[in-house]
Amino acid sequence: MRHHRGHRTLGRVKRQREALLKSLARSLVLKEGITTTVAKAKELRPFVEKLVTTAKKDTLASRRAVHAQIGTASKKLFELKARYEERSGGYTRIVRLGRVGKRAIESARIEFVK
């Protein structure tokens, strides 16, 4: 049973998984929408939404915290935060695209809500 196992491992060890999420988050912020697998999109959503919530505070500490997670893409995130001042959550959406490619992996598009 999976009791008390909060996140998907995505077939990776912890350091690889964290690096993957940071890379996906960086791409999502810069492009405002990316296509990936459903499992990765579901893991990425809470990660990015916490970053946006932190960015909305706009303090020096929040800027440093966001920059530590996604690097120079944090500048773009602090530009996007004005879009979500009135919203208290739900900054991203996941749209399932169906099975794609020879391996028929379930794909999804994760994007920021306008």
Protein described:
- It contains four helices and three strands.
- It is α+β, with helices and mostly antiparallel strands.
- The chain has a domain at 34-112: Alpha-Beta Complex (50s Ribosomal Protein L17, Chain: A), CATH 3.90.1030.
- It has a three-stranded antiparallel sheet.
- A hairpin with a 4-residue loop joins strand 2 and strand 3 (105-112).
- The radius of gyration is 15 Å and the shape is globular.
Summed up:
This protein is α+β, with helices and mostly antiparallel strands and 114 residues long. It has four helices and three strands. Strand 2 and strand 3 form a beta hairpin.
* Mean pLDDT value: 95
Derived structural class: alpha+beta
Helix content: 40-55%
**Which value, in Å, is the CA radius of gyration?**
15 Å
Q: Calculate the terminal CA-CA distance, rounded to whole Å.
A: 39 Å
CATH class of the domain at 34-112: Alpha Beta
How many helix segments?
Answer: 4
Unreliable parts: none
Element pattern in H and E: HEHHHEE
The strands making up the biggest β-sheet line up spatially as 1-3-2
Q: Give me the CATH architecture of the domain at 34-112, please.
A: Alpha-Beta Complex
Biggest sheet features: 3 strands, antiparallel
As for the CATH topology of the domain at 34-112, it is 50s Ribosomal Protein L17, Chain: A
